[in-house]
Specification:
The protein has helices spanning about 20-30, 45-50, 65-80, 90-105, 130, 155-170, 185, 210-225, 240-250, 285-290, 305, 350-360, 385-395, 440-450, 460-470, 470-475, 495-505, 525-530, 545-560, and strands spanning about 35, 60, 85, 110-115, 150, 175-180, 230, 255-260, 295-300, 320, 345, 405-410, 455-460, 480-490, 535-540, 565-570. With about 575 residues, the chain is an alpha/beta fold. It has 3 domains: about 20-200, Rossmann fold; about 210-360, TPP-binding domain (Rossmann fold); about 385-570, Rossmann fold (3-Layer(aba) Sandwich). The strands form 3 sheets. A 6-stranded parallel sheet has the order 2-1-3-4-6-5, sandwiched between helices. The protein has a 5-stranded parallel sheet with strand order 8-7-9-10-11, with helices on one face. The chain is globular and about 70 Å long.
Length: about 575
């Protein structure tokens, strides 16, 4: 179990202040943890969490930056399907947290963000600081990337605000919500304590189900198909839903694809899983999709990019799109992706549609219509470390590889060498491409896994890690076990590929692609960055001969409850796979 500080003396059980009501609502909503970076705007709530609730349910996880606050809550939600509380200070803390909230919104994870402002009553404000930390419409800064916001103006309204926010964040499609507490209201002595609700009467609704006519039409399309392809995108960590997806694929004789942007949705070594999970579809994947005569997409992040990409595709089959994604679309950000041509759009929970299709089709077991493409481990020449080598050594080192939960994966990770066999095997990407979020999201995953007794490994790029490395302090402080492997190419290498592509198209020197991107002179000492946060730092590991011992030490630290970072130099090879160099339609 993670470590939580224990206050001195017994908690003051009496609900006597406005902030006590907010603390009680966080507990009643079922929040076990609250990540936070402190600030005077919510000093009343802080006191209530410590001296009124005793720092339990929720227990505080202290972070060094608001982006980490939101990232930890994000990772926790990815691993549990449930929201966590993230507390940020006034308008400035919200600005720090903004990118993390964007990631969470794009990733469609639930989250209870609690903020503060004011005092709203200007006569209560301290000179200067309270004025600059008060905003008239603070939520406007994030309103386009949250589902709901509210700033209650009474103790009774605090109850209603949290009840509504809790329902909203947990209702599919899930997403972050934001409750702002007036500093003056927090510190107001209560003349009358509002009635606290029976939360069984404030539950989120069941996910929407498909109309029978839609299921009937889908069944007819399935029966007519010779080469059905299932695209499993966003989904839950439920083993029951995992098994239902496998049943559907086997009954249909379908092939399956899954996306690295999402967590594990289907066993990747199952014969139906036709190719390793991917981030963006290249030619090989688009050619595979083109072979299908029916595509059924279940909350697929970018359906248009898979069946009708900008440069064209030879796919000519039917498309069924099962999604609730459109309910969160707005015009502020292009998260909605391109509009895919669709023969049947089912606006319903993907899990419920899988369940309904299984009920209609019965249970059978057909062979998939196409053989899977597998890329097993290929020994290298030993001159450099490859991600294939890292995966092989790690798999040989841990006692039970199938019990490892991969919180994040850097580029070039060989998914065929490390099959995902249950819903907790892999947690997906950050949602919004916000670099620096990898460490904090991984800690959130590790926090959830610590409660479940499951080891967590994160494989991060060096650029992602150096931007967010001080999130590790929270994992060390609160004894959250985690092993972090750094794929260190000593560069913002993805951008090197972009610059190479631009230079080639303009007939300019490709050799200059590293300028403004190489992370050297001085070398960033990743192991020392980890040690500065109290973690064990190992490396740099530059040779294949040194890799097994380093990983053995790292696994031992993790299994004994510690946090370890291993800096592994992985020079980019000729086998690098990226779509970054793709030309835009300009």
């Amino acid at each position: 179990m993670p470590y939580l500080d224990t206050p001195e003396g017994l908690p003051d059980d009496k609900v006597a202040w406005g902030s006590d009501v907010a603390a009680q609502m966080l507990r009643l909503c079922g929040f076990k943890y609250a990540a936070l970076n402190p600030g005077a705007s919510y000093r009343g709530l802080h006191d209530s969490l410590v001296n009124h609730l005793g720092n339990r349910d929720p227990g505080m996880l202290l972070c060094l930056h608001e982006d980490h606050v939101v990232g930890i809550a994000h990772g926790y939600a990815k691993a549990t399907d449930t929201p966590m509380a993230a507390i940020v200070h006034s308008n400035v803390g919200l600005m720090h947290a903004h990118m993390g909230i964007f990631n969470a919104y794009c990733d469609r994870v639930p989250m209870m963000i609690v903020g503060a402002t004011g005092p709203v009553d200007s006569h209560q404000r301290r000179p200067w600081i309270d004025w600059i930390h008060t905003s008239t419409d603070q939520a406007a800064m994030v309103r386009d990337i949250i589902k709901f916001d509210n700033m209650p103006t009474s103790a009774e309204a605090i109850v209603d605000a949290f009840a509504k926010a809790n329902i909203t964040t947990r209702t599919e499609p899930t997403g972050p919500v934001y409750v702002i507490l007036d500093a003056g209201l927090q510190e107001q002595s209560l003349e009358k304590v509002p009635a606290l609700p029976d939360m069984s009467r404030f539950r989120p609704p069941a996910p929407p189900r498909a109309q029978k006519a839609d299921i009937d039409e889908a069944v007819e399309m399935i029966k007519a198909a010779k080469r059905p392809l299932l695209l499993f995108g966003r989904g839950s960590r439920s083993q029951t839903q995992w098994d239902a997806r496998v049943q559907l694929a086997e009954t249909m004789g379908a092939c399956v694809m899954s996306d690295l942007k999402n967590g594990a949705m289907f066993p990747t070594d199952h014969p139906a899983h036709v190719i390793a999970p991917f981030n963006q579809p290249g030619k090989e994947l688009l050619d595979l999709i083109a072979e299908a005569d029916l595509v059924i997409a279940f909350e697929w992040v970018d359906l248009n990019g898979s069946v009708s990409p900008p440069k064209g595709s030879s796919f000519s089959g039917k498309v069924i799109n099962v999604s609730l994604h459109h309910h969160l679309h707005n015009g502020a950000h292009m998260v909605y992706q391109g509009t895919a041509p669709t023969d049947l759009f089912i606006s319903a929970s993907p899990a419920s549609v899988v369940e309904d299709l299984n009920a209609a089709l019965g249970k059978g077991k057909k062979e998939p219509w196409r053989a899977a493409i597998r890329k097993p481990y290929q020994p290298g020449d030993g001159s450099r470390i490859r991600m294939q080598d890292v995966a092989k050594v790690l798999r040989e080192t841990v006692a039970d590889p199938d019990k490892i939960s991969l919180a994040a994966l850097a580029r070039q990770w060989p998914c065929d060498q490390w099959p995902w066999r249950d819903p907790g095997a892999y947690m997906g990407k950050d949602g919004g491409g916000g670099i620096g979020s990898g460490p904090s999201i991984s800690i959130g995953v590790a926090l959830a896994n610590a409660d479940m007794g499951r080891p967590t490994v994160a494989v991060l790029g060096d650029g992602d890690f150096v931007m967010g490395n001080h999130a590790l302090w929270t994992a060390v402080r609160h004894k959250i076990p985690l092993l972090v492997l750094i794929n260190n190419n000593q560069s913002y290498f993805n951008d090197e590929l972009h610059q190479e592509g631009v230079a080639k198209r303009r007939n300019r020197p490709v050799g200059n692609r590293w300028i403004g991107l190489a992370m050297d002179k001085p070398y960033v000492d990743i192991a020392k960055l980890a040690e500065a946060q109290g973690a064990t730092g190992i490396g740099p590991i530059k040779t294949l001969a040194d890799l097994p011992d380093a990983i053995r030490k790292g696994v031992d630290v993790m299994m004994n409850g510690g946090v370890c970072v291993i800096d592994i130099h992985v020079p980019p090879g000729t086998e690098r796979n990226t779509n970054s160099t793709g030309e835009r339609n300009t």
